[in-house]
TrEMBL record:
It is found in: Cytoplasm. This is Heme chaperone HemW. The gene is hemW. Residues 1-237 form the Radical SAM core domain. One of its GO terms (cellular component) is cytoplasm. GO terms for biological process: porphyrin-containing compound biosynthetic process. InterPro entries: Aldolase_TIM, Coproporphyrinogen-III_oxidase, Elp3/MiaA/NifB-like_rSAM, HemN_C, HemW-like, rSAM, rSAM_sf. Probably acts as a heme chaperone, transferring heme to an unknown acceptor. Binds one molecule of heme per monomer, possibly covalently. Binds 1 [4Fe-4S] cluster. The cluster is coordinated with 3 cysteines and an exchangeable S-adenosyl-L-methionine. Belongs to the anaerobic coproporphyrinogen-III oxidase family. HemW subfamily.
Length: 378
């Protein structure tokens, strides 16, 4: 038990009012009303089936993502979190995050979500430009985004996050920095500031918009990073910035190759077993199938030769040094198994190594894909 990684819980709420053209998450445009209580009952039944995989460990963090979790009624949220607490040992100081849209209805429920146990809200702002929001298929305006952030700030939650995108269709440097300044003015303890990428099977993939070129993107990143640093934010992951003491514990657990249960439509889980196997679970994607009681789509063990890549793919996104002992502790493999690719990474200047740690260099950050490819199974 002592050697099992920390455990988190991810809960997926699959519905949205409408599908955004850039979104490749498992989300479904709502036709009619959300089946609040019914879906929660299925979530808890799904959770019960997975309990044997947790080895009785306590859950350190919960993340409720989507879709749009804030479409769930406050009563259903209470039922959900009460149900989780009744089935799993939850750490006393567990971080419980919920994603929310800045729409008026959802924002009015924030305090009820807080009463149910949510102590961190992540608001999907994306941009403060009405034109850019329309282009992204977002159904809120800049004023609603600001109101939601102010509400979240006023609740005295343990933290809140704003999600902001850059590299938007036809976005100029000054527009991108203007978005960032408006976000910083709202003083969120945490900012996720990430670049729009065109994902397959999205509306943008079938009709690609014109995005800024690599030089423009680099300028946006460099100057934006300077703005954030000057405002007291520290970058700790590729697209995550936080004021000191406000990093997202749930995402840190993912990136440190911790374990997580995934419940709900299309949710993924990773669960280390006492015998050292790493079990991955994938849940049924479509609400219809899931709510017919067919929760599990597939379950499999991660092969030993895939563990190094999986470990470093997460670990090297974090800017903090990676403790060398974690590799063996979390994969069950000896460091000898990766000595050759490590030496190549060191020779290429992607990494530095001390007796305790590996650290990705500035060059390694720029060539992250090349660094990770060294650890791919033959």
């Amino acid at each position: 038990m002592a050697n099992l990684p920390p455990l988190s819980l991810y809960i997926h709420i699959p519905w949205c009012v409408q599908k955004c053209p850039y979104c490749d998450f498992n989300s479904h445009a709502l036709k009619g009303e959300v089946p609040h209580e019914e879906y929660v009952n299925h979530l808890l039944a799904d959770l019960e089936r997975d309990l044997p995989l947790t080895s009785g460990r306590e859950v350190k963090t919960i993340f409720i993502g989507g879709g749009t979790p804030s479409l769930l009624s406050s009563r259903a949220m209470q039922q959900l979190l009460d149900g989780v607490r009744a089935r799993l040992p939850l750490a006393a100081a567990a971080e419980i995050t919920m994603e929310a849209n800045p729409g008026t209805v959802e924002a009015d429920r924030f305090s009820a979500y807080q009463a149910a146990g949510v102590n961190r809200i992540s608001v999907g702002v994306q941009s403060f430009s009405p034109q850019k929001l329309a282009r992204l298929g977002r159904i809120h305006g800049p004023e609603e985004a600001k109101r939601a952030a102010q509400l979240a700030a006023g609740l005295g939650l343990r933290s809140f996050n704003l999600d902001l995108m850059h590299g938007l269709p036809d976005q100029s440097l000054s527009e991108a920095l203007d978005d960032l300044r408006q976000a910083i003015a709202l003083n969120p303890p945490h900012l996720s500031w990430y670049q729009l990428t065109i994902e397959p099977n999205t509306l943008f993939a079938s009709r690609p918009p014109r995005l800024p070129d690599d030089d423009a993107l680099w300028d946006i990143f460099e100057q934006g990073d300077r703005l954030l640093t000057a405002a007291g934010y520290q970058q700790y992951e590729t697209s995550a910035y936080a004021q000191p003491g406000y990093r997202c514990e749930h995402n840190l657990n993912y990136w440190r190759f911790g374990d997580y249960l995934g419940i709900g439509c299309g949710a993924h889980g990773k669960l280390t077993q006492p015998d050292g196997r790493i079990v991955r679970t994938v849940k049924t994607r479509h609400p219809r199938g899931f709510m017919a009681g067919n929760y599990l789509d597939r379950q499999y063990d991660v092969a030993d030769d895939e563990k190094p890549f999986e470990f470093f793919m997460n670990r090297f996104r974090l800017l903090e040094p990676a403790p060398r002992v974690d590799f063996s502790r979390y994969t069950g493999l000896s460091e000898k198994a990766i000595r050759a690719p490590l030496d190549r990474a060191l020779e290429s200047g992607y990494l530095t190594e001390t007796a305790q740690f590996w650290q990705v260099t500035e060059k390694g950050k720029l060539f992250l894909n090349s660094l990770l490819e060294l650890f791919l199974a033959e």
